[in-house]
Design goal:
Two copies of one chain form a homodimer.
Chain A lengths: L10 H11 L2 H8 L4 H9 L5 H7 L5 H13 L3 E7 L5 E6 L1 H18 L8
Antiparallel strand pairs in A: 1-2
The structure holds a DNA duplex.
Chain lengths: 122, 122
DNA sequence: ACAATAACTCACCCGAAAGTGAGCCTCTTC
DNA sequence: GAAGAGGCTCACTTTCGGGTGAGTTATTGT
């Protein structure tokens, strides 16, 4: 993570360009990874542990679950709390205000998606 | 496009599962492709032709531009109008009500992203 | 002694997203 | 008669997201 500086492939360049042009592109990239918003929703609604989430979404791999949780924590959308420091360390996740605010917008998106746009409107 | 039924790679399966669990996943997938929302924004603000968009985003390839425009049209976010049926066919794009409604939510997302969540709030 | 348990992490692989270059179509201009 | 204009589309290549399986940690139940 500290030694590779090439980064010239224009794929990465374009990503940076978009970030620079408008910050919304970063937000879109942050919220679109698969499972992420679903996990945020689950955590907010009480499914707040690694193993509980695993049960809730059996087809989701440990690998990706761990990664998504780490992202959510890193972006300040959920908070991680150690419940029991015993050996199988138990951990509890809870949404931050930021995370809850995001969910509101996500709800709006869902609403938008389900709306019938065939008839004209105000 | 009509003959391939295999679809067993679990990558695709999971995508379908997510769609089935919550429609918001489809929306997220639809809005997250690179350039898409930026293009929608541009079109809404008067940059409404293929070549104009090309100029506005020089690093975006024709290939992807064409594809994104087609998606936007297919999803009913923008409308395509033939301006001049002369040989270099001129075409004009304009956002639909649905497209404008989406931009509103995208704005909310941007706002959310730019907000300072470090201090507590109501 | 050995499986199970909670929460991860590592090495590997495959398909999809997105980038590049060229081609096409007909009409007008140099 | 060649080039350029406008709007695409095709073939090819690279990057990266996300999937799988196995390994790690220490303690407890059988």
């Amino acid at each position: 993570m500290a030694s590779n500086l090439k980064e010239g492939t224009s794929n990465a360049q374009n990503r940076q360009l978009l970030s620079a042009w408008c910050s919304v592109n970063d937000v879109l990239r942050d919220i679109s990874p698969r499972w992420k918003m679903v996990l945020l929703h689950g955590i907010t609604h009480g499914v707040a542990q690694f193993s509980r989430l695993k049960q809730a979404f059996p087809t989701l791999s440990d690998q990706v679950l761990g990664q998504r949780l780490a992202e959510l924590v890193a972006e300040g959308l959920v908070e991680k709390t150690v419940v029991a420091a015993t050996v199988p360390t138990q951990i509890h996740y809870a949404p931050t205000p930021k995370g809850r605010a995001l969910l509101t917008i996500i709800d709006a998106l869902q609403h938008w998606g389900e709306q019938d746009w065939s008839r004209d409107h105000p």
